[in-house]
Amino acid sequence: MHLSEKMPAQDASESLNHARADPSMPDNRPEINRLCLHTITTRSWDVETAVSRYAQAGLGGITIWREALEGRSPAKIGQLARQAGLQLTSLCRGGFFAALTQAGRQAALDDNRRALEQAAELGAPLLVLVPGAAPGQPLDKSRGQIAEGIAALLPEAQACGVRLGIEPLHPMYAADRSAINTLRQANDLCAALDSSWVGVVVDVYHLWWDAELPAEIARCGKSGWLAAFHLSDWLLETHDLLNDRGLMGEGCIPLREIRLQVEAAGFGGLHEVEIFSERWWAQDPGKFLQAILEAYQRHC
Prior knowledge:
Elements (H helix, E strand, L loop, with lengths): L2 H4 L5 H10 L13 E4 L8 H10 L4 E5 L8 H10 L3 E9 L6 H21 L3 E5 L8 H22 L2 E4 L16 H11 L4 E6 H4 L5 H10 L3 E6 L23 H10 L6 E3 L4 H4 L3 H15 L1
Parallel strand pairs: 1-2, 1-8, 2-3, 3-4, 4-5, 5-6, 6-7, 7-8
Helix pairs in contact: 2-12, 4-5, 5-6, 9-10
């Protein structure tokens, strides 16, 4: 039975009150106003509905995916979110710098410049970057192209007032999505770029397995690179490499342990839930939101 099947069909505030009254809840659970949701997590809602429902649930922020802005004014959506009391945590996503051809690399730069402009109009302080990889190209070469691409964007990032957040992805994505696969690699890239306009996105789904993670989280925080923190869970039986993430508590990631490490490293931002799941997307998004509220306090 899934967590959502165990919960009554009640509104988000009632779910939250039940969670707070539950004696099994840990004392060091986070407050709901530290929670941020990615619009992709409740993808069947349009962005206006997501803003309204997230605010009603007492969330602290929202990360907006670019496809949610199609046909809309980023400035107006940003104003809507702020009026609802939500912090605009970031815009997702840019990146994908690696390509076999110069034309492909130039197209990526052009798209990232448009993303920076969107983030600035939205009022989002961070653009999340999926670094990219080119099938058939050595990873070292892709990593060089990633570094060159981010360096080329730094003047625009500064002009827009939007930081670039490098998100290392799990090694299973090394073939076609990201040649940056560990926090050490992302930290090293930040050190090489040496710019306050570059930071790192720590996503537990991608990094939980790494024995070096605690030390690299501490290094990331000490260096001022820790820009964002993403939550979900790794299912023991994963059926799809992209769209089968778990709700927090359904899998094997030590979520609270990593959250406390990130905060000990100086991170004071919102905790962002980013779940790609055909299983959860098939359910009512309102009930999914209720399940996220309880799971966040129980397991994070």
